[in-house]
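// run 5 | inverse folding | seed 20
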């Protein structure tokens, strides 16, 4: 039996069967990881564009409905961040399932003297990487990629009119 084993081991280096399978396995993994990395990169770029779009939608919504400074008559006196966040989440569409830690901040600089001051909306979000093989390389061990805060600025759509008693709380020049 030891003779057979020795003979088999001696002739093993001459046996070329299975060499193609080993070469395929060696070449396949780097190619698969590279392809997966391109797919993950494309998804991250698309998610960034979607978050930027959601930021613009949130900025437009805040410019219309923000009334933290009570300079829009007959409107609810609040910054309405919940409604703006709903708009941002709606604008994320099917990508909202791939996002985590979505945060919306509103900075309304409009006043009674300047009801058309700028309203800024800042959105931060983390993208959950999901492509096999490349999610660890592209997004780290936490498998998330944090986008830089995205900002959209619009002039406040305040009004200088009085409808009933709505404008008594905020008059121009006071």
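// decoded
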């Amino acid at each position: 039996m030891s003779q057979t084993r020795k003979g088999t081991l001696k002739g093993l280096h001459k046996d070329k069967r299975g060499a193609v399978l080993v070469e395929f396995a060696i070449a396949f993994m780097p190619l698969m990881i590279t392809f997966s990395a391109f797919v993950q990169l494309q998804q991250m770029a698309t998610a960034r564009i979607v978050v930027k779009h959601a930021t613009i939608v949130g900025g437009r919504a805040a410019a219309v409905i923000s009334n933290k400074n009570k300079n829009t008559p007959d409107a609810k006196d609040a910054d309405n961040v919940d409604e703006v966040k709903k708009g941002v989440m709606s604008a994320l569409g099917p990508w909202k399932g791939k996002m985590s830690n979505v945060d919306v901040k509103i900075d309304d600089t409009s006043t009674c003297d300047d009801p058309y001051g700028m309203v800024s909306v800042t959105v931060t979000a983390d993208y959950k990487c999901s492509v096999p093989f490349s999610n660890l390389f592209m997004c780290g061990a936490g498998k998330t990629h944090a986008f830089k805060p995205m900002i959209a600025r619009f002039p406040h759509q305040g009004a200088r009119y009085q409808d009933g008693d709505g404008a008594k709380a905020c008059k121009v020049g006071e």
